[in-house]
Predict the 3D structure of the following.
Amino acid sequence: MRARRCWETACGAGMARMAGMVKKRSLLFAFPVLIGGCFASEGVIARSQPEVPLWYHHSGSSLSPAFREQITAPERSETPAYEKGQPAFDEAGARVFVGSSDGGIYAIDARSGAIRWRFQTAGMVQSELHHEAARDLLLAGSNDGAMYALRASDGMLLWRFQTGGPIHRKPAVAGDRVIFTSEADQMFCVDISSGKPFWQKVRPPAAGTEIAGHSGAHLVGDRVYTSSSDGMALAYDALSGREAWEGIDLNVEADLAGAKEAIHYLDADATPVSFRLPTGVTAVYFAGYGGGIQAVDAVDGRRLWSFSAGKGVSDLVLWREEAHAAREAGLGLSGPEVPERVLLLAVSAIGGVWALDPKTGEPRWHLAAPKGGITAPTPVAGALAIGTGRNGLFLVSPRNGRVIDGLDVADGFSARPAAGSHGLFAFTNTGTLMGLRVLPPLAE
């Protein structure tokens, strides 16, 4: 329970730094870091519990650093207090791709942290990168308003497409087409080989003050979904760009209820996600800053449910755990199969993390937001990796939202971590890429 109290302390008065937690690289490969004190884990799962998740836990050994490499150039011309460029992982090539506030796009060796190549853009790269392994292609948006297509093997520029605003969200790929959005409420569809445009959509800017950021594109079959700075949920035909159904006002319920937050900020900056319900209906999930979280039918936009308590949501993540046999922790006993588990995770810098049942919108658990902000969670080894702006990186149980383990690196995280077979990769606010081992220990 000590790690849980530590998270709660971080949500209040703050948390003391753990001096010397991250060792020199030469020592990182030889010795796992034992997490103690404030970041101690919940302890070994009770022996009497007949059902355990796909990971088992031994105190203080779930997270340990493998490498720590400074990526962002010290002489960068722009010096924000954060790095939001989410890494992308190349499984076959054992590489991590990441964009930086120095305007660079980097390819990093996933085992050693060594830089393989670097490409310079004309602005900060604070976007989610997308890697297409079969095409040897890396797609990256920049604050200079351009989408860059690079050859992933060596960083050579293949094409560049200029838009009217910074690009922060990951593009969606549909066959020979790339669909992406910009902060200027624009959506573009271009040829994946040449960058030649097929169609584009532009919405007028929202009146009044907007929250920084924008929604990305989400593909379901032959449709693409996004949301806008004026709080509208939108659907288009991915081939032609035609509107699939009339836009849905995500703030209308909050307006009718007289919620004060709704009239200040209309933004809907979370990228939608989707899930096929047991009824056969595909639900698409949207989130508005003041309007909460809403599930709609992907075909006709009909509202399925809403969760009005989820304010200020910036990211939506669908977590899934495959069906598996029940196990008696440590005893090797099997039982009836545990069915698939699915959670809709909604992330807010002001509200924390809500875990909802995607079928009904019922809340399963909630983590309060720590001071300094929070990243979207990344599924890894059956757990969730969550970075915080001031208090390091945490592993959280998707079953109940309780903290399993943590690592404090003093400079915090704003970028969502990336996971792969080589471990977890997290980009700190000072431009350091950390490779982390996530060890799901075997039962005793």
Summary: The first strand starts at residue 63 and ends at 70. The CA atoms of residues 320 and 342 lie 4 Å apart. The chain has a mean pLDDT of 81. The radius of gyration is 21 Å.
